[in-house]
Design brief:
single chain; about 100 residues; 3-stranded mixed sheet; 4 helices; about 45% helix
């Protein structure tokens, strides 16, 4: 399945995922400004961990469409802790 990845800084939400069109949209501008998402998760955290958190969260929705929002939050948090720097760079680069 081919997924379209779009940066849409005009949307109201941090991100969205559409199963029908296989599209993931991320608002990088909003994610950068959120004080709750600015704290680094670990020593390899990017300059804008909130953006990466949003990207990982929406990618998780795309991979597991039937998973509840609470389960996606928990998995995202765990994945952010264990992601290697190279994986973080690749994820972030897909949304440039």
């Amino acid at each position: 399945m081919k997924v379209r990845r779009i940066v849409d800084n005009k949307m109201r939400d941090y991100g969205s995922e559409d199963d029908r069109t296989h599209t993931i949209r991320v608002n990088k501008s909003l994610s950068k400004k959120d004080p709750n998402l600015v704290r680094p998760v670990n020593k390899w955290a990017s300059r804008y961990p909130g953006v990466l958190d949003t990207i990982v969260h929406e990618e998780m929705h795309a991979q597991h469409p039937k998973m509840t929002e609470k389960a996606v939050w928990k998995r995202t948090k765990g994945k952010m802790r264990t992601m290697k720097p190279e994986a973080k760079r690749k994820a972030y680069k897909r949304y440039q």
